[in-house]
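Researcher: Let's continue the batch. This sequence belongs to SalK, and it's 297 residues. Same format as the previous ones, please.
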Amino acid sequence: MTSSTTSAPVGAALHPRAGRRCHNVLNALHTTHYFSPDVGRELAALGITHPKAVNFAIRAAALGAVGAGTVTATFYNYQPDTVARFVPEIWRTAAPEDVLAARLRAVDTTLRRLLGDEALASPEMAEAARLALRATEACSPSGRPLYAAHAALPVPAEPHLAYWHAATLLREHRGDGHLAALLDAELDPVEALVSHTATGKSMTPTWNLNTRGWTQEDWDAAVERLRGRGLVDAEGELTESGVALRGQVEERTDRLDRAPYEHLGAADVERLTELGTVFAGAALEAGAFPADLLGKG
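Model: Same format as before. Here are the structure tokens for SalK:
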């Protein structure tokens, strides 16, 4: 694999959005396991079968056998009663450490299916794992519970799993900071979903409602609140103020998440982004995500 772009010179300043771009492609590969049938099979073997229970288990297991309040707080945009329906019952079904082991087995199977054994054993995968893990050296656990919990897990030996693990750490590090930006913008959980969906870069309303547990009435009420603030128009589209606010949220998130990418440096961030783009693109081409996942409709 060779670079198709002009590489950033060593010591070059990091572009303000370089970390965001790098995170996006790393997160794309991390996210594949949320839609993988391999995860469902592994968790079913532990006795966890409901899709929402599976989702809560695989992401919250690093926190330990926590209650519904902790999951609601750290996940942010899930309906509290939906969380309480499954948490902490999932821990009476399977111990968190067993869930984590099942998740890693499922990730291994998923990546082998999507990328192929040759890609997983390639020098490029080993390079991507090395770069991503180096970026995580500058992540901070302070105020970042999901990152801190995952950072305490051992790094897998295999390069493709080490790369996925590092992508997970970088995702949760940015995600924890993103919640601070949403709170600062005074966007509650449903308003955050509605306004993000209006950008066209989020899951569709149907997917958000089905996975997060909110009702159509909850969604419509959030639209009305955003309309009252002048952030969406009569059709539910972002106004100029709404676009500006969402931009501010992402810029604040970038600032809170800049440390790992500054630590890695502009040239290596560019290289990691290039490698991550190839792997994420291959996963997408292999059908990692539902066709109707993204968009405003």
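Researcher: Any comment?
Model: Residues 133 and 157 are 12 Å apart (CA to CA).
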